[in-house]
Amino acid sequence: MFTEMFTDLKSASRLLLEAKLAPVQGTRFQPTGFPDLGAAEYRLPDGTVMLLVESPQSVANRLEATIWDTANKTVVKELQGIPYVEVYDQSGDFLTNSLLEAHRLNSNYILESKDDSFLNILKQELEIAPDKPLKFECFAKLLVKYDLNCLLHGLFLAKSEIAGGRYKMPRALSGFIEAHGVEKVVSGGVKLDRINAKGDAEQGAGNIPYHRVEYTAREIKAYFSLDLAQIYGYSLGDDVENLLIAIALWKIQKFLENGLRLRTACDLEVVALNVKKPAGFELPSIEVLSEALPKLIETAQPAFANPAITKVTYIPKPKKKKGNGATGNAPDTEAVEG
């Protein structure tokens, strides 16, 4: 039945999921906030007040985090064997990897190091001149080889040395959380100073009153979209395509199971999870996916780098030297790309 799932999805262009959420306790929740904006409120044409609870950027970060075992500095056991790039410092200590970095393989710790081994791998294997058309099938296969999660979460190789910085892979997996029919809950408190109630507030002393705004909502929903047409369009073969779909579904379910404590005052739980498209598709449980993933990884292994984990050393480049107009000093030729 599990393998039939992939057959059922072959004729679909999107997999759309909706999860109805509710606060674990009480009715109030705290949305994400943006600099100089605060909470993102907006209205529908019928006047319904809406609220962005979690942005697509934040949900992408949370989905990516589901597969990393922080305590053991490795991927979770269900996904052992997937390819990624690991970064060490010059002493041999672990620094980071492409699964953790905000820009994935385009991390400065991977591509802006004096150890340019991986940069040279990309340049050699893509083999695209700046004035030639891009070959996204080639790009996709390279990402499968070194970090197939980039195919789910997107990648922009902004290096001029690689096809003029034109390679950009959009997200295939995305999600966001929004609330319908919201009302503000305004409250506040006082930070008490046990020693000097009239102390200098600018120094953090004294009694300091503060306010806070939370929300209630008629309905809170999480939305997820997996672009199947994009995944199939790279002609990666059934083994890799099935693995990407299974990882995406596992990440969604793991996030909904363990990742909905978004903030101290925003702890949510799933009330219902529904498939909106394709009609009739039955979402496999996280237990079924967890059992199937090791076999799917083993089957797709010929497409991965050998070994699957590519190790690089981060060696900082010298900072760019500022030129002196009076003497005409030139900037350091090894300067970090601006």
Structure description:
The protein is built from nine helices and 14 strands. The strands form four sheets. The protein has a seven-stranded antiparallel sheet. A three-stranded mixed sheet has the order 7-6-14. The protein is globular and about 65 Å long. Helix 8 packs antiparallel against helix 9. The chain has helices at residues 2-9, 56-65, 108-111, 117-126, 136-147, 149-153, 228-233, 238-258, 286-300, and strands at residues 14-23, 40-43, 49-54, 68-69, 74-75, 84-88, 94-97, 155-157, 167-169, 173-191, 208-227, 261-263, 266-277, 309-313. Helices cover 27% and strands 29% of the residues.
Describe, in short, the structure shown.
With 338 residues, the chain is of the alpha+beta class.
